[in-house]
User: What shape does this take?
Amino acid sequence: MKCAVFILSIVTCPVCFGDTSFADKIPDFTQTDVTGIGSGDGQQYCAPVAISNSIVWLNKNDSQQLELVNKLASKQYMNTSLKNGTGTTGVLRGVEKISTELFGGYKKLEYEGWRKHPKSYSSGVKVPNIKKVKSFISKNTAAWINVGWYKFNKGKNEYERIGGHWITLVGTKGNEFIFHDPAPRAGKSFSNEYVEYTTIKNGTLVGQKSGLPTSAKGYISLEKGMHVKSGADFAIVDGIVYFEI
Assistant: This one.
């Protein structure tokens, strides 16, 4: 299990330079620290873990994070599949349920991206907005990134989706995002992952998920610093869940 060292960084201009003030305060739990047959040893638990990082921080109680992870993964919350992980709909419904229990509700819970999701949570934005995500983290807010793993076909200029992953946004600095990545490939000790990004200029996102194919133009590609899954060429931000209490 990853443990944080709590260091407060003072940033004079969050809008211009980003905000690192909360990165060291938000937990960085590893999904495979969840063990047992019923959990599949956490192999598909990236979503409940990523969401739990922010929820326990907002709730100012990380002493029972493992219990929260298992609750979020359950049928009554996100309904995480031991084969396919957690879809966008499951994440949104689970966050709504847990926020009602812990915070009495929320001010904002919305989704930006191409993946299928209930209209009640829709921002109406298909291509995630960089300025919005970079200015979103505060003492009352959280954002979770749904990364798509893609193989690139240069001849067709197509990015074929072969899987996905959920990570916790914990801050930004300059032209970098700061993530807490639940995957063991990102390490099992606490680490702020500083990840550079670019935006895709052209091409098409393709795959078997509802919402594909769609134009790749404008989507965020996570570059240096991102722990890309073996077999994938690109890590592309398929969508973002924004939350505010």
In short: Residues 3-17 have pLDDT under 50 and may be disordered. Residues 14-244 form a domain with the Cathepsin B; Chain A fold (CATH 3.90.70). Residues 175 and 235 are 16 Å apart (CA to CA). The chain is about 20% helix and 30% strand.
